Amino acid sequence: MATKEIESNLLCKRLIHHFYSRNHNFCLEPKDIEEMNWDWQKEFLDSTFNSKLIQKYPLSGQFSRLFLKKLIQHLEPHQEVHDDFYAQLCTAMNIINKDGFSYQHYLVENDINNIITIKETRNMVVNGTTGLKTWEFFFQAALMLSDWALAKQEIFSEKNVLELGSGVGFTGITIGKLCDIKSLMFTDCHDDVLKTICENVKINFPDFVQEETQDVTSYKSENKCLSIMKLDWNSVDNLPDNIVPDILIGADIVYDPSILVPLCNVIQTFCKRNSNLVVYIASVIRNEATFASFLKTLDDAQLQYERVEVKKSGYIEWDDCINKCLLKIIEKST
């Protein structure tokens, strides 16, 4: 492949990455724009706005408008602009995200053929919960945990996993989709959050068969089961006896001092059911005092913890500069 063609492909991949990262702060040099002829534009459009995935699950209208306007402004003085850019701009200007929801798409290993799609709200609070939004800063804990899990897939192989405080379900969906687990149960205490998790599971596992019981919604394939269940940390006595995970996970669930004791009670409950239980909790530390209180609460609950070193593995993009911590927690031996 000629050098010029390689550079053109790299430029296209870079702009595609900006698109899926919802980043319109890209820079284009004159030599870049020179490469962006009609065929280049078509390749870009086919991988983004015209792809089946984006047609079905579009990004927010606001982002799409900003991205398209900037790209068109760069192109117009120097290239014949592909008709579909203008068509997509008209579409974006008319997008009204129903009920305040839109879709985010996360590339795995920067591969447009390997994407996690998440429905989320643009609103800060919906019906009393923030669990329906992927907060740009604090969502880094979910991205970090997902990236780490994909680098340590052997830990999850053939295991029954339960996620605490699943939110939109990103971490559980990523592990469920790409790790060889036996089962994964998403839990949260808000009905609206649980409904959104169900929708996100259906988006990412379209071939799984849905089954309903009184308390649990499950999606099954021949060798994997994903379930969604309501779990109030203050009512663990009502937890069904048949739920016995091998691994607990949680991302950005240590932020409120009032939930630290209930959280540790949940962990203790599952430790009593499985003495070999291992817990992994990823946090963006927003308040040092609250996090220190969590560590003390673990000690008081006879739960042993250690900090796990986390480095970027390149599966999921996240910000390594955040004040972060991944804890491995087990029951203290007597």
UniProtKB/TrEMBL annotation:
Pfam families documented for this protein: FAM86, Methyltransf_16
Entry keyword set: Transferase
Family the UniProt entry places it in: Belongs to the class I-like SAM-binding methyltransferase superfamily. EEF2KMT family.
Span of domain FAM86 N-terminal: 41-89
Keyword field contains Transferase: yes
Protein name as annotated: Protein-lysine N-methyltransferase EEF2KMT-like isoform X1
Native species: Trichoplusia ni (Cabbage looper)
Record-level GO cellular component terms: protein-containing complex
